[in-house]
Amino acid sequence: MSGALQDSDAINTLPVLLAHALAMESEAAERYGELADQMEVHRRTAVAAIFRRMEQAEKAHLGDLTEMCGKFELPHIAPWDFKWRHSESPEVIDFTKVHYQLSVREAILLAFEHERRAAEFYAGIAQNATDPDVQKLARELAAEEQQHIGWLEAWLAECGPGDAQASEDPDPPLCQE
Amino acid sequence: MTINSVSLVIAGSGGAGVVTAGSLLLDAAAQAGWYALMSRSSGPQIRGGEAAAMLRFATEPIMSHDDSFHLLMAIDWDNIGRFSAEIPLVAESLIVGDPAHGAAPAALLAGRPRQAALAMSEIAGRIENGRPNMVALGAIAGLIGLPPEAMQAVVEKNLGRKGQAAIDASMAAFHAGFAAAADLPATPKLPTVATSVAAATEPRWSITGNEATGLGVIRGGVRFVAAYPITPATEVLEWLAPSLAKVGGMLVQAEDELASINQIIGASYGGVPAMTATSGPGLSLMIESLGLAVAAEVPLVVVDVMRVGPSTGIATKSEQSDLNIAVYGLHGDAPHIVVAANSVPDCLFTTQWAVHLAEAMQAPALVLTDQAMGQARAIVPKPAELAFIGQRLTASAPAVEGERYKRYAMTASGVSPMAIPGTPGLTHTADGLEHNEFGTPSSQASDHHAQMDKRSRKLTQFNYGDHWADIEDSEVGAGDTAIITWGSSTGPAREALQRFSAAGGRARLISLRLIAPVQPEKMAEALAGIKRAVVVEQSHSGQFYRMLRAFYELPAQTVSLHHGGPLAFGPKQILDQLNQLNAGSA
Amino acid sequence: MESCAQKKKYAAKDYKSDLKPIWCPGCGDYTVLNAITRALAELALPPEEVAVVSGIGCSSRIPAYTSVYGFHGVHGRALPVATGLKLARPDLTVLVTGGDGDGFSIGGNHFLHACRRNVDITYIVMDNQVYGMTKGQASPTTAPDWEGSKLTPEGTGINPFQPLVVGLASGANFIARVSSSDPVNMARIIVEAIQHPGFSLVQVLSPCVTFRPEQQEWRDIVRTAVVDYTDDAARAARRLMTDDGFNVGKVLYKGSRPPFRPEFENTNGSVTELEARFAL
Question: What share of chain B is helix, strand, coil (3-state, %, to 5)?
Fold first, then answer.
């Protein structure tokens, strides 16, 4: 394992930016997929569909990034050495933030919050980086996140009033093992 | 009696050196070219309790004690009366006691044995460092015809490290006792077969059932043992610990039996053949995890050296009463293997076979032995070399290339190739939850039924060969009468058959080694032409008889001869039953 | 992705199976599964050289959700299975996952002796102070006044078990407490736990959203422990006995006791030699 990145090289080179972006986008795709799985396992199909669409969006994004990465040698960064503000990358929804009775609206808002965080993350880099290539790529990445935010806003608008509240389950939890 | 044998007991309280004297006598008998069987009985004390060594010597192999003893040599009488039920004495028997310790307790005199006095402590007192137990051994040797040279060799070997003075003192006491025997009433004598081991007619071993059990699992390929001490299984473990280390294995003392069984499950899952040994209380604790080994298809061997139950019962004494728990104790439908050794040397054969069966079928195998054979030492013909080695069907690649590995794949034999951790590409989770072929938990009826069929098929389709039972006929044929038995009741049953045969009777002995899965077809073949049978077992409720009734077609005239432990059957009890059966039918 | 392959050979998702967990959405155990897979990826351990062993309970479902070798045994007996596996196969990296009921109630004796024996395994306990699989009964770590179960409507009235104090007293060689609200740090500590020789105990505060929904507040209650680990057991004991159970995110104790590791010695002995001792 390499040591922690020093603040002096905090995301001011293309390889470091790409390493961060790749980690964040792949984790986001994976997490949206896992959340969709969870909701499917619990027969929450409408909510699952939201997460599944986001998984697809992130995967598409990831494909572009992966292509770009091929041109660089990326540094290895341990999960705890990334420059995230929170424990995980900004775009990744914390597992403990969801719950069984999550409504469609709540799911969209949750995704919205994390897409917004991702956009801010890239925008911050665009603002602070001195390397013009880094600035340019960060702006492009931020724009892509804005696109996701736009979709989420549209879905939110489509949300019927029935989707607003967390649903209720009249049945009690079941005994397993 | 048809066997040329002599039976004797050396008894005394703690400190009298009874157990040591018994061992010396056994070793000396080996020098004389004899065969022997020695069992022990002792009080509940850790030290200082009353003890008795029961020995039988013969010029040919023996598997059982006799109906009564020719000689009781009592170094003192403290609490020896407690053993009276285990020391049957008849009019021909001779009790030799030390007058310094008073008269023989009344409990020993019910059979009106002859009595004689030998001043063992006084004679020993006249010899520097002389001990009464060596005087007793000398007298025994004189009475039964054991040559003093045989004892000389044994004493030199055993006391060598204490120096020549100790050897001389012991032999002086021995010779004094030997000389005194001339004044005692006679007992049967055995002819000397040889004057040294080298001169004996065939290679012989001196081994206990518990040691044979340990050797059997090592020969079968076991290299990991985890266990918790329990009487009377501890000697299996004590023998295994240093022995495993010599052959690249290990023994771990676990915190309890729940840990023992689960540690061996872990080791076996890791690809190392594994076993544990315990007794009834420990087996009870292991039962849930035996079911896990069935469901997860993890091969392992559990030896139960049975003792008197239920609960703590009588920890130091024997009973054949764990049959039910061994066969039926597991919850759910849980096909597993239960085998039983039927003599001291058979502990070696049966445990080695058990490792082979467990590994071949990826299932747990329970081996039932008991205190009587486990803690008995016997001088026996050298056991045969056995070809059984545990061999597991392992997987190194998925059955169909590119497909996901199926740990519990359906196969004709029911046995699925097992991927051992470390094998690339075949990772899976072995599960005690019902599962599908991949090992993925499943609550579907179809998966449950398919997996149950498979687990059952593994055991029912296996070729157990002739080892499922020992079948022995009278010299002139099987006739139409059978003794059906198992475990250590086989010894007296064998001798009963010999006597029955010598008296012109014809009968067949069927001693089941494979208790589960049951073998109705083989039994039907063994019982062809049999019209009468006696079922012999040491269980108060007749567990074996009930199991036979449930799974086999028995002759119309079948009687159950059973009683609880710790008393073993004498050959005569079984012979009487055979005669009665035949008389009733004549 | 190969072209991007950095120094590591594996990604976290390489250690996840295709099986979808049955845990309730929001369960802390998802985070633990994630942290374990991240830790394994960071250690770049080939999946076939790792085994995860468990007993029974929600958190004991983890082995099937990984792509390494797994063993899902009976309730309370994961530690002995793992002990046997590691002793028989010292080449494998062995993890044990389970819950507070599995580890500290039905498996309590094995917990004591696993700490004491100090075999080189890593034990990750997801502590949610409740039995989830059986509909929410009090566990050994439940507070005495919790009235949420029909079995103990007045609360248990019994002080909760202190796993880390007991683990330390019993001889655990590495002790840490983490929160499921900090998955990345959890991964870091699991890496350390695996790397540290001997028995490593990692307590995870992992909320049960269904039977203890109030535990979702733990994310706001927990605080990063202010001091770094000590190698002094007496000092660690004082700290553990005075903390409130919410100091998380750091290793609390690292011992240097050598692990229990009896060797399969090749002493060149043979079965024939063993048999020779019985021959007259």
Answer: 40, 20, 40
